[in-house]
Amino acid sequence: MSTIPRRKFIQLSAVAAAACMAAPGREARADELPHLSEDDPMAAAMKYTHDASKVDPATRNNPAADQNCANCALIQGKDGEAWRPCQIFPGKAVAAAGWCSVWAPKA
């Protein structure tokens, strides 16, 4: 059974659905996208940082030291790229070494 609280699951589902409807059928390429700024209002609301190692694991919803954008279920693009598109931040590329509060484990 998942450890994601029901309210968080509903929020994630709504954001993911909105992202899918925003640009259906076209996969974004990270080299075409501007990099997400930590000062961006949406990034700040999601506690996004370019460097996951600077986030205290104890302050995370699902505490784990190895969380980063590269191993999140919401990231897109090819493994190994330093900047990749993310379903949470449409139209922006996130750092693969980054982290935000919406991190979800890959299935």
Short description:
The protein has 107 residues and is mainly alpha-helical. It is built from 2 helices and 2 strands; from the N terminus they run ααββ.
Number of helices: 2
Going by helix content, strand content and strand pairing, the class is mainly alpha
Q: How many β strands by DSSP? A: 2
Number of domains: 1
pLDDT under 50 segments (min length 5)? none
Please identify the top-level CATH class.
Few Secondary Structures
- For the biggest β-sheet, the strand order reads 1-2
Helix content: 10-25%
Taking all residues together, what is the mean pLDDT? 83
- How far is the N terminus from the C terminus? 13 Å
Q: Estimate the strand proportion.
A: 5-15%
Summarize the helix and strand pattern as letters: HHEE
Largest sheet: 2 strands, antiparallel
Write out the CATH superfamily name: High potential iron-sulphur protein
- Rg for CA atoms: 13 Å
CATH topology value: High-Potential Iron-Sulfur Protein, Chain A
**Principal-axis shape:** globular
- By CATH, the architecture is named Irregular
